[in-house]
Amino acid sequence: SWANADSALSEQTLNATQELKKHAMVSQHPWNILESLTTEVGPRLPGTEGDVRAVQWAMDKFKQLGFSKVYKEPVKVPYWYRGSAHASVVAPFPQPLTITALGNSVAADVTAQIIRFDNLDALIQADAAQVKGKIVFIDHKMERYRDGRGYGPVVKARGKGAVEAAKKGAVAMLLRSVGTDSHRFAHTGVMRYVDYVDAIPAAALSNPDADQITRMLSRGEKVEVNVKLTSENRGEATSYNVIAEIPGSDLANEVVIIGAHLDSWDEGTGALDDGAGVAIVTGAAKHILERGLTPRRTIRVVLFAAEEIGLVGAKAYRDAHKDTLDSIYIAAEADFGAGPIYQFNTRVNESALDSMEIIAKQLESLGVKLGNNASWGGPDVSILPALGVPVAGLSMDGTDYFDYHHTADDTLDKVDPDALRQSSAVYTLYAWMMANLDEELRPIPLPKQ
Amino acid sequence: SWANADSALSEQTLNATQELKKHAMVSQHPWNILESLTTEVGPRLPGTEGDVRAVQWAMDKFKQLGFSKVYKEPVKVPYWYRGSAHASVVAPFPQPLTITALGNSVAADVTAQIIRFDNLDALIQADAAQVKGKIVFIDHKMERYRDGRGYGPVVKARGKGAVEAAKKGAVAMLLRSVGTDSHRFAHTGVMRYVDYVDAIPAAALSNPDADQITRMLSRGEKVEVNVKLTSENRGEATSYNVIAEIPGSDLANEVVIIGAHLDSWDEGTGALDDGAGVAIVTGAAKHILERGLTPRRTIRVVLFAAEEIGLVGAKAYRDAHKDTLDSIYIAAEADFGAGPIYQFNTRVNESALDSMEIIAKQLESLGVKLGNNASWGGPDVSILPALGVPVAGLSMDGTDYFDYHHTADDTLDKVDPDALRQSSAVYTLYAWMMANLDEELRPIPLPKQ
Ligand SMILES: [Zn+2]
Ligand SMILES: [Zn+2]
Ligand SMILES: [Zn+2]
Ligand SMILES: [Zn+2]
Q1: Which residue in the set A39, A212, A268 is minimally distant from B93, CB to CB?
Q2: pLDDT (tens digit per residue) in A48-81
Q3: DSSP characters for B376-427?
Q4: Mean pLDDT of A313-319
Q5: What pLDDT is attached to residue B446?
Q6: Residue tagged active-site, from B307, B308, B333, B439
Q7: Each residue of B279-309: b (16+ CB within 10 Å) or e?
Q8: Distance CA A158, CA A167 (A)
Q9: Are B430 and B332 spatial neighbours (Cβ–Cβ below 8 Å)?
């Protein structure tokens, strides 16, 4: 297969790749971009003033970095107002609890007995008579893995727990935080209602508070808790996908998308989620720009709006561009903290895998190994493979990511500057090589739903 | 000096010491006591219902553990109500800040420009015209050491910062938290006013928030902040020093005090500060009781009230017993987390140092080394040497202590069960040997004030 090497990436492209690597590995751009976003904007929940400022910040930053083509595309977003969240044990051992409202939750002022379940399935299987009138507590602890695979099994209770609890007559749902830390931060994140079931309030307990309630319950006594939320849905607002491009040369109509999401949850400053991604992909394009290199294909940096509340910007992007999705050569998104990146995965035609090996070979000295061809490409671009768009996934080390994810503690000090720089360097080389690759990536293997 | 060995501790005492060591090193008592206090009582700020419940818990626990003499002594305590604390950057980069009111602070609703100082001395030396009408921000970062010596230089700004700021016309004082962590927890702790200076509000910023303000200031712009506190002083309440004794035999009128403080700050459950101390000393006495051993001197466990707000229980104890302080053979207090203990220090007559070596020899296999003869014995007992009372200090490893100290994050999960067990084992042997030692410890070297 190495016979293809010369044709897939030219000598010139490979030389520029080496230059870019040296350049990116000493670059301050990613850090400076992240420092700027988290300091000057801070929290940026869709619909809030912080989100408006984030869009303006991104437009200004792209222009300031020298991108010649900078624009934004409107996205209608729901505006959920967090308000305040308080909870306390009323009996048998009165004391405050640390909670946070789950995104989309209705308000609450309810006092009731706790009924505990090991996980969502246990709730679904429970007898409604046991649940009626109580506060459901789903006590499913997330496990720590480099690739974050502990998230999926637990997060479904965040999304659906309130609906399943309400079906059985519960008055509220409290979730053990979907997080791997043991600090007194509750992890927020979006939850959903359905039309045919009453909307009951939903909040997360910090892990130490979930432990505390479990200890109380283990004494065999009824545990009564009060939950107060002043959250509410406040209708619609407008946000924007913010985009910058490095125009291509002979293949300018084909686009390599590197994305991240601009919005964040509102309690931290969204440093790891997803300021780091913004910095990684913006920095990557800047490195190419700064070296004065012109890619064959257009490199498009897309900072998606409103990822946190349901890929809202990504869906708007897909819909707005539904007639030209064929022009997307490949898409990737950085949304898993600050790295480092350890694996390069794809979803491309199998005939293109030799070329993927050639790219992987260039990433090797940065510590990145070739992975598999079953990638989803990251949250916002994950809706594209179903429409035939090739994607790549640059796997980031997420060992500690869920210690901070969706908490007030997601702040700049949690980012390792070296890991951030490595990640941006990997994206730099990746984008550059994809934009110059002599290879057909379609049709992609059909994703199994 | 080893010639004294046989006379200072009898063969019988030494044999019992070995038995106690084996017993204590597999004991569940310290953990169970701590789990009970932090779960069933939780926060216990003097004057609050939690403090009332803590006193009842301690009385019940001592009786349940089988102590024959259990009693409490009333202590008048000031009741400071925390209320809520909010702060935000108003300009140039609006966003919320994580703060906590310092104990004793008055209420606040003030918006003003920030003026930053490296430390308290820099504030004291500043020109009042620069400070007037502003919010003083003291940005003194605490350093991490095993023995906690980073605390002293920084904590003075917590106590006196508001007064020094008010002297120059400041409208509020914000302190970088006295803590070694980088989490979004602000560290509370007591502060003081003086009669002749206006009482201005005082709060602590979490370390990441202090970093954030510093970054904003580094851009050369005016930073305007709003601070809202609803704290207030609510007069006097009654708390109690709670005491249990193992009566001595031939020297029953001489008392070996092992102490800790029962109160805690109100945002966490006071697991490390000072639930651990309560568990260590209570567990130590229980181990002796459980082995059916009778010490020559009386062993007295004192759980002091209201340490956090100024050694209030300790001062009440001193005053209530001022005519019989001579009966205290030696006093020690565990108030520095859960250990492990690594050093044994004393303040005894120099002629008794050979006997201290004999005791140290017995502690060696637990990882404890003999230290110096300049101990203060721990916060509550630190007021005793000035009155001629010998003290001992069993130094605990405090490397991580100030990550959690006085935050909402001071919860049971932060305690290492093995370290707690070792610490209680050391106190067990210490108390037993002191209660049986054939040695005169007075007069003690005069403490240098
Ligand atoms: Zn994200
Ligand atoms: Zn997220
Ligand atoms: Zn303490
Ligand atoms: Zn304390």
Answers
A1: A39
A2: 999 999 999 999 999 999 999 999 999 999 999 9
A3: --STGGGGSGGGT--EEEEEE--TTHHHHTTSTT--GGGS-HHHHHHHHHHH
A4: 98
A5: 82
A6: B307
A7: bbbbbbbbbbbbeebebbbbbbbbbbbbbbb
A8: 15
A9: yes
Dist. CA A168 → ligand 2 center (Å): 29
Query: In terms of Cα–Cα distance, which of B221, B191, B194 is closest to B116?
Result: B221
Q: A-side interface with B, Cβ within 8 Å?
A: 35, 39-43, 49-50, 89, 92-96, 98, 182-185, 207-208, 211-212, 215-216, 268-269, 407-409, 411-414
Q: Are B162 and B200 in contact (CB under 8 A)?
A: yes
Compute the nearest-CA separation of A431 from chain B (Å).
32
Q: Give the number of the ligand closest to the Cα of residue A278.
A: 1
Q: Could you give the CA distance from residue B171 to residue B108 in angstroms, rounded to a whole number? A: 9
- Please state the φ and ψ torsions of residue B247, each to the nearest 5 degrees: -60, 140
Separation of alpha carbons A155 and A143, rounded Å: 12
Query: What is the tens place of the pLDDT at every residue in A164-177?
Result: 999 999 999 999 99
Q: Which residues contact B202 (CB under 8 A, 6 or more apart)?
A: B101, B102, B104, B105, B161, B162, B172, B173, B174, B175, B191
Please indicate whether residue B19 is annotated as part of the active site: no
Phi and psi at residue B330, to the nearest 5°: -165, 150
Whether omega for the bond prior to residue B445 falls within 30 degrees of 0, making it cis, is no
B345-365 in b/e form (b: 16+ CB < 10 A) is bbbbbeebbebbbbbbebbee
Any idea which ligand is nearest the CA of B277?
3
Per-residue confidence (pLDDT) for residue B23, from 0 to 100: 98
Q: Give residue A3's pLDDT band: very low, low, confident or very high (50, 70, 90).
A: very low
Domain residue extents for chain B: 2-80+235-436, 83-230
pLDDT of residue A2: 44
Q: What is the pLDDT of residues A107-157, one digit of tens each?
A: 999 999 999 999 999 999 999 999 999 999 999 999 999 999 999 999 999
Task: Give me the count of residues in chain B.
Answer: 449
Is B182 in Cβ contact with A184 (below 8 Å)? no
Separation of A274 CA from ligand 1 center, angstroms?
5
- Beta pairing class for B297-304 and B251-261: parallel
Mutate to test the interface with A, among B36, B48, B184 (most CBs of A within 10 A): B184
Nearest-by-Cβ selection for B411 from A50, A93, A184: A184
Region for residue A87 given its phi and psi (left: phi exceeds 0; alpha: psi -120 to 50; beta: otherwise): beta
* CATH, range A83-230: 3.50.30.30
Q: How confident is residue A446, by pLDDT bands cut at 50, 70 and 90?
A: confident
User: Rounded to the nearest whole angstrom, what is the distance from the C-alpha of residue A263 to the centroid of ligand 2?
Assistant: 9
Residues of B in contact with A94 (CB under 8 A): 42, 49-50
Which residues of chain B fall below pLDDT 70? 1-6, 447-449
Ligand nearest to the CA of B406: 4
A413 with B211: Cβ contact below 8 A: yes
Determine the pLDDT at residue A447.
67
Chain B residue numbers touching A83 (CB-CB < 8 A): none
The residue annotated as part of the active site, out of A164, A254, A267, A307, is A307
Question: Ligand 1 mean position to A34 CA, how many Å?
Answer: 14
Question: Which residues on chain A are in Cβ contact (under 8 Å) with B179?
Answer: none
A339-371 tens-digit pLDDT: 999 999 999 999 999 999 999 999 999 999 999
Query: Between β-strands B224-229 and B95-97, what pairing exists: parallel, antiparallel or unpaired?
Result: unpaired
The ipTM of this complex is: 0.96
Q: Which architecture, in CATH terms, is A2-80+235-436?
A: 3-Layer(aba) Sandwich (3.40)
- pLDDT value at A4 more than 60: no
Min CA distance, B12 vs chain A (Å)? 41
pLDDT of A1: 37
| Interface test with chain B among A40, A184, A404, by most B beta carbons within 10 Å | A184
